[in-house]
């Protein structure tokens, strides 16, 4: 059981920037968030929503104009960056080019004056953890982008920071690599019990790494919840739209009832969000017109206009390689899978 106030607390924090014309603008606008010891929280939001500003304020790199940042209940105001016991990792791992992999990873341990033998042990342990066992002697210039970020992760974990701050650490990598590394980052953070705040604008990454996801928009926190709760119970239409839900329908309306069927319908006043994968074609359902069809990574995506609902993407397995895609204008009928619609605003 964790003591109340343990770990990181961000209380009503405001971060201001001064524009060229002298006016001030709040990049973070009265935000409150807690990260418990051992927890990984992703800050997810569109570009410019204030994620990096919040991270930098926690690190002590940006002044806090209002509110406070505490660790285990102690106010960090006035505590300089290097005394906060936090690790930082950025998009470009910023490795030291003149040090080999092992000496990069050992950097923080040298700063802490950890004895040589123990340092070597810890470096080997970390390289193993990030999947780079045996890479110690390699010149960092010879590494791939993904390997560099693995080294950067090992380096930031080596001194056992009480909080690791990661700012878009995978953004420079291509998608396939990002997906794999997101799982590996999660595994490394979990294995070391590291408390972490992970900034990303990539939904899949946030869902892959985090115990809880904090959705930010325009300097505000819209919702913070575990991934499954966020996905199935977005707190507002805004959050649901940001997650990729495409259309909204009142559960109790005629079309809402027709879509979900009697058994699947939640409270009649609930607002349902439907998106890619929520609907499937059935012989008798709600009328819809095909507006587009495409083949993507083993599935067929049909963009359909559903009567009384709007434009939604139907995702179907593509079983038969010889089957033609439905033509634009084809009339179909659809129904919702009750487990694949979200209930907006805490109903259900
Ligand atoms: N040094 C600065 N001076 C002035 N304005 C800034 C400064 N840094 C950030 N901003 C502004 O503050 C707002 C939030 O920026 P921030 O970088 O925190 O957002 P973000 O969510 O991390 O975005 P991104 O994903 O694009 O990095 C933006 O409108 C940005 O233009």
UniProtKB/TrEMBL annotation:
Organism, per UniProt? Cellulomonas carbonis T26
Q: Organism's domain of life?
A: Bacteria
User: What InterPro entries does the database record attribute to this sequence?
Assistant: AAA+_ATPase (IPR003593), ABC_SmlMolc_Importer (IPR050093), ABC_transporter-like_ATP-bd (IPR003439), ABC_transporter-like_CS (IPR017871), P-loop_NTPase (IPR027417)
Q: Check the record and name the PROSITE patterns matching this protein.
A: ABC_TRANSPORTER_1, ABC_TRANSPORTER_2
Which keywords does the record carry?
A: ATP-binding, Nucleotide-binding, Transport
Domain named ABC transporter is located at: 8-243
Query: Under what name is this protein listed?
Result: ABC-type quaternary amine transporter
Cellular component terms per the entry's GO annotation: ATP-binding cassette (ABC) transporter complex
State the PANTHER family in the record: SPERMIDINE/PUTRESCINE IMPORT ATP-BINDING PROTEIN POTA, SPERMIDINE_PUTRESCINE IMPORT ATP-BINDING PROTEIN POTA
The keyword Secreted is assigned to this record:
no
Question: Record keywords: Chaperone included?
Answer: no
**Enzyme Commission designation:** 7.6.2.9
Q: What are the GO MF terms of this UniProt record?
A: ABC-type quaternary ammonium compound transporting activity; ATP binding; ATP hydrolysis activity
SMART domains annotated for this entry? AAA
Stored Gene3D superfamilies: P-loop containing nucleotide triphosphate hydrolases
